[in-house]
Amino acid sequence: MSSAKSDRPPSPRWHIAVFLAPALSIYSALMVIPLASTLKQSLYNHVDDTLAFVGFDNFSKLLLDPTWATSFWNALSNNLVFFVIHMLLQNPIGIALAALLANPKLRLVRFYRTAIFVPTILSFVIVGFVWKLILSPLWGVAPSIMKAIGLGGLFAPWLGREDSALIALSLVSVWQFVGMPMILIYAALLSIPDEVLEAAECDGVTGWSQFFKIKLPLILPTIGIASILTFVGNFNAFDLVYVAQGAQAGPNYSTDLLGTFLYRTFFGFQLQLGDTYMGATIASMMFLLILFGVCTYLFFVQRRLQRYQL
Amino acid sequence: MFRSRSDLVRGIGAHAALGGYTLIALFPVALIVINAFKSRAAIFSEPLMPPTPKSFSLIGFETISARGDFISYFINSATVTGVSLALILLFGAMAAFALSEYRFRGNALIALYVALGIMIPIRLGTVAILQLVVSAGLVNNLVALVLVYTAQGLPLSVFILTEFMRQISADLKDAGRIDGLSEYKIFFTLVLPLVRPAIATVAVFTMIPIWNDLWFPLILAPAEQTKTITLGAQVFIGQFVTDWNAVLAALTLAIVPVLILYLLFSRQLVRGLTAGAVK
Known about the structure:
The complex is a heterodimer. By secondary structure, chain A is an all-alpha fold. In chain A, 69% of the residues lie in helices and 3% in strands. The longest helix of chain A is centred in the first third of the chain and has 36 residues, at 66-101. By secondary structure, chain B is mainly α. Classes of the chains: A mainly alpha, B mainly alpha. At the A-B interface, helix 1, helix 3, helix 4, helix 5 and helix 6 of A face helix 1, helix 4, helix 5, helix 6 and helix 7 of B.
């Protein structure tokens, strides 16, 4: 902590350490060290009742041994579907809503903005349960609404069927989190300087073409951030599936995500005992996937987008 | 002439789209709340109708209050969220002040080290966090939850507050130093009041996930006396799945506090965002 080059008083600067210490120690002790230790545990397992270093054996078991690999690849591909549906729907809807809200002449903006953000603040327990109720053939809210608009014949118990449960849950999750990209992109649209838009208007670029030619390129970095947040959130998801379908991610594991797979492996369920080391291995795989996604984004996407930033 | 008419059409279109989406966003919430105040027969026969004098009933709320533990879940959630939030904001602001105000060796490295936590979910360290909590004897103790949530919230808090503190003019702080204020006094009396809008933004963003979290209460504090409202509601729904009045009343009660907090802070949230906190 030498302060020779600083323009501040050269006395020993203990206050810097005092300011930093609480945050750094809590963050390190409960986040960085446990994460490192989890990564380390993924390289150990019980061999003949003693704990031994097994290298990448756990990982090869997870990826290749049918007893683990079937569940793992199922959870991973479900996770990919979950993410793709979010990217195709959540972010475009969020951008469209933000574009409408950012119109300076529009009234009631505050009301719309607040109302559309409401699902985002609700807990998964509420969201999972209410959609289960709505989609349940028992209560009949969805069937009767669909009948009222002439689509009654199309209704099916979507959450209970293997081929549709994952898509139904993804749509529920999109419904819940549309507010996030909307609010981020809305803020980005508001911070575009008026002069830029006035200049565009003088050149006759207005309406939709103004949005696509001027505003969209300027908010691309924010769309990138919204996308990477979606990615991290999706590959870390657990709560919605757990609440709506239970730890078994039914029907027949068709809604299993890496998060629920981790939960079952680490803590056990019904007759299966929890397995710390395979749990650590799955957590490490999730860490590597998220790290890979974030790095890809930072190196390839964000760097190119910087050019457009004001 | 033409221009104003097309503006009118466009305005109506925008209202139709936003209004339609608002309906989709609020419909499930409204469905819970209106049915929570109805008799069991009315919930099933007319789920979409608001309660009438004939169908109005508080039986669900009576069932819940007879059990009483809902209040203790609520207090647990409020305690954990409140204390975590206070620590996140205080420690986060202190670290952000150190990083934005002083030039010292390792400054950029420490900022990067903390920022890494924004993208990496703390949940992935659960295996080791549980072992740590067990060895510290903090299982089923709210302190464990507070510590975990503080660690989870600090990275974003430090990042946003650092950005904001960089914008505070140096003259003000130097004037304070000339007047003989200590660095601590400068932080608490000059800098903290100035970053209030940023603190509100951080508060909203960190509070919602903490209040709603299911994972860590499920793993670190599942005992009856330490259950949070999210975990409590989850268990309650499992037990009372046939008592629809009670379940809908419980869900309504779980919505209210977070909705009130959000309505109080929502203006601040957008203001903080547009001021350039998250870029």
